[in-house]
Amino acid sequence: MPSITVRNVPDEVHRALRVLAAQHGRSAEAEIRDILANAVKPQGRKQLGTLLAEIGRCARLSDEDFTIIEQVRDKTPAKPMTFE
After folding, report:
1. What is the pLDDT of residues 8-64, one digit of tens each?
2. Per-residue pLDDT for 71 more than 80?
3. Which of 27, 30, 32, 24 shows the shortest CA–CA distance to 6?
4. Residue 60 has what DSSP assignment?
5. pTM over cut 0.85
6. How far apart are CA 40 and CA 26, in angstroms?
7. What are phi and psi of 30, to 5 degrees?
8. Cα-Cα-Cα-Cα dihedral of 40, 43, 49, 51, to 10°?
9. If you count DSSP H runs as helices and E runs as strands, how many of each does the chain have, helices first?
10. What is the DSSP string of 13-31?
């Protein structure tokens, strides 16, 4: 995994990062990774669960419908892919 070095970080910024990290129960390095990841994520990106829930609402599926789907769906674990 690539590394990044950031030089000349002002003392007050470094202190603020350490405080944030402590509040979130992680290291300053982990806090910086989280800040960077959130800064570059596409705005408005939806997660799979959100999209599935939206599809269910659009299809007007009821809790009873979901129960029926759960009863009939294939619950067999997927077989691992092999490459020969």
Report:
1. 999 999 999 999 999 999 999 999 999 998 888 877 777 888 888 888 888 888 888
2. yes
3. 32
4. T
5. no
6. 20
7. -65, -35
8. -140
9. 4, 0
10. HHHHHHHHHHHHTS-HHHH
